[in-house]
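Known limitations

Structure tokens in this collection are predictions and should be treated as such. Users comparing against experimental data should check residue numbering before alignment. To illustrate the layout, the record for Lipoprotein is reproduced below. The input appears on top and the generated tokens appear beneath it.
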Amino acid sequence: MRSGTRATAATLGIMAVLGLNACALTEGDEEEVEQASTVEPDAETAAQEDSADEDAPAAGTGEDTTPDPDEAIQTVTYDMTGPTEGEMTMALHGLEVSDEGMLVTVTFAPEYEQDGDPAHFVRDMHDPEYENITEYLLPVVSDRANLKAYHVPREQQMNYGGGWFPSAAQAWASSVNVNVHSGDTLTMWAYVPTPEDDIDTVDVAVTPGAPEFRDVEIEWDDHSPADHGGEDEAAEDDDE
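Generated tokens:
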């Protein structure tokens, strides 16, 4: 089960830092300095230092936890619709139910001719309406068998629907207001409510105009369908 940790786009690497201890030479007369310089290091001490150097991680290194598009559940490819011409590979990596809801993880890998700075994911690669204030790309999870749809919670009067949304929405999702190099991978996550019915698969729509992911299996783990209010709740009210 994946907990509700959200690295906001961002929190994906762990920096390993190698600390160096400075050594100072005490003052003394020239004879003592010459004698000290001729002393060979103790064999055991030298071996320990060599071992420490081999085991210590290099400064600036860290584990890359970006999902691999090649290991995705499903992948779709579409042409970029913005000023930057190229191709986008969108990959779905999982629908994981947790105590917080159902986590949707998607990666985007753009391929375009890059001459200078990286293109912006929203205004350069997709160019939706009001692209200058767009912050989120919100998926919609559809249970077609029970005619239900699940949307990303957000602070907004219109709290249904998917697609592009401004920062004012304050959605429970990561931001896509970023620049992405050609060949790099952008990871996007979003939460939707846990499905109410005991179902195995759902459909997931992410980018407007792009193909959706069909018949995606839900990773329930030890969790059960949610009760978002219905007949049982109404019955309890009647009993009172």
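For this record: The first strand starts at residue 74 and ends at 79. The chain is about 15% helix and 30% strand. Please report discrepancies through the issue tracker.
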